[in-house]
Specification:
By secondary structure, this protein is of the alpha/beta class. It has 6 helices and 12 strands. Strands 1, 4, 5, 6, 7, 8, 9 and 10 form an 8-stranded mixed β-sheet that branches. A two-stranded antiparallel ribbon has the order 2-3. α1 packs antiparallel against α2 and α2 crosses α3.
Length: 217
Amino acid sequence: MVHILNKENSILNTFLAEIRDAVIQKDSMRFRRNLERIAEICAYEISKTLNYSPKIVETPLGEAEVMLCDDKIVLATILRAGLPFHQGFLNYFDRAQNAFVSAYRKHHKDNSFEVKVEYISCGQLEGKTLILVDPMLATGTSLVYSYEALAAKGGEPKELHVAAVIASEEGVEYATKHLPHNAHIWCAAVDAELTAQSYIIPGLGDAGDLAYGSKLD
């Protein structure tokens, strides 16, 4: 199931506008904060689909029944661009376990690339709800490889949610085909095109560089 959040008007559009704006995004601290804000909105929307049961909470004056989440959540992200986006989810799912994957594109002269996964930090996933977050879902290859690497190490999760700030139509289609059939894909926005180098248009540029500074190739 694919959820595209900007199909409904909300304050999310303000943060999306700023994160795309070529002038505003030069402020790397604001860029990181906007990634965090968008993640918090995504986390709230995902929280509505989780499993809950009633619990009794003791107040100073009595007892209150509250519906609390039963799911054991693992938050996973892809280094490095995913870090501020991950933090926004962690602000809301503050008791979640965490997992990290180092995955990157190794480009070739003919504009093709292969995805390399070099590092995984992951606990047990079996019986848990995995929320895999990465700001940009371009071709979908890195995302699928990262999920497969996590599942190979930690086992298959009970439920899978994938979240991105901006996705391409091609990336969403690829992820839908190659992730488990019951996966939920959450995107703040979906753009139609990819460049020959597989960057999203209009997109926002390189999220990792905008958040943390340019890197050497």
